[in-house]
Amino acid sequence: MSFRLAAAGLIVIGLVVPGRQAIAQPPQQVLPSRESVNLPAYGEVPELHLYATPAEYEAAVDDASLCLSKLWYRSDGLRVAAYLYAPCETTDDKLPAVVFLHGGFAGGDPAATLLPAFHRFGEAGFAVLAPLYRGNAGGEGRDEMGGADLDDVMAIPDLAATLGFIDTKNLFLVGESRGGMMVYQAIREGFPARAAAVYGAFTSLGELIDSHPDQYTPILHVVWPDYDANRDVILHRRSALDWPEALDVPLLVMHGGSDQSVSPLQSLQLATALQKLGAEYSLMIFADDNHVLTRHRAQRDQNLIDWFEAHRTQ
Q1: For the chain, which terminal residue's Cβ has fewer other Cβ atoms within 10 angstroms, N or C?
Q2: Distance, CA of 86 to CA of 76 (rounded, Å)
């Protein structure tokens, strides 16, 4: 996983969004309406070169037909944020939507690094909704990296329904790195996805920690203050390899063979388990690529689009 901090150019739109039905939250108040800033220049964002060339980034920034917004909604009673990327002028035609779960923990707004991929989805006719997880980007609460923040993801179908132009029968989950772990959990909890995909995702949190002890051991108690008392529960909840039978939607798994952050063996192990179960999945390993598939980023996103189109319902 990588930790990315980026300034973002966003429009904040106030919405009234119902809570998840299981939570039975009271009616929510209209949230703060609007504020806008500009997207940063290419050279102002660390690590943006891993996600786009200057030309790719500028093409996304300059596309006047597609707009990036920041929506505020309620999750477990908390005020949290999500990106919306969609046509600036919507019609009566409902759009399929990619629900994008980004990687990292406790970072800032990752708009600049996500925008190039969002642009490819938008050009292909998909809207994008990307929860930013509680405790991030000005949202209330605390990011538990796969704990209660999963509710922020599970509330997205309700948010999509309020927008009026999203086809809620055609929602598709995508997750990078930590976001891939969130995708696996969302499937387990019944997120209504037609299909799902991940790249650079870990499937065994314990194995990830053990393989990078210098990186993760110092922050375990920052992420999970109760780690010592609840270690087994924390690891199990976030390790899809422990419950592959719960991954019951068509799943595309992509991984860089040269990923130094998460071993591709984690995806191979999950694919082996899915194969034994007779699940519908596809596995792609890019032998010479990194954690976010930088060298194959256009092919990566086209693979996602093709996978979702193949599983789209009319």
Answers
A1: C
A2: 26
| CATH (domain of 65) | 3.40.50.1820
**Residue 1: inside a domain, yes or no?**
no
Place of tokens 């256009």: 298
12-34: pLDDT as tens digits: 333 322 222 333 333 343 343 23
DSSP notation for 188-204: HTT---SEEEEES--S-
Whether residue 85 is contained in a domain is answered as: yes
Query: What pLDDT, on a 0 to 100 scale, did the predictor assign at position 38?
Result: 62
Number of domains in the chain: 1
C-alpha to C-alpha distance for 252 and 174, rounded to whole angstroms: 9
Q: What is the mean pLDDT of residues 122-151?
A: 96
Q: Which domain holds residue 20?
A: 12-310
Nearest CA to 60 among 5, 8, 117?
117
> How far is residue 179 from each of residues 100, 159, 185, measured CA to CA in Å?
8, 19, 10
Residue 6 lies in a domain: no
**Structure-block tokens of residue 272:** 């082996």
Q: Could you report the per-residue pLDDT of 43-87, keeping only the tens digit for each?
A: 999 999 999 999 999 999 999 999 998 999 999 999 999 999 999
| pTM: predicted TM-score of the whole model, two decimal places | 0.89
5 domain residue, yes or no:
no
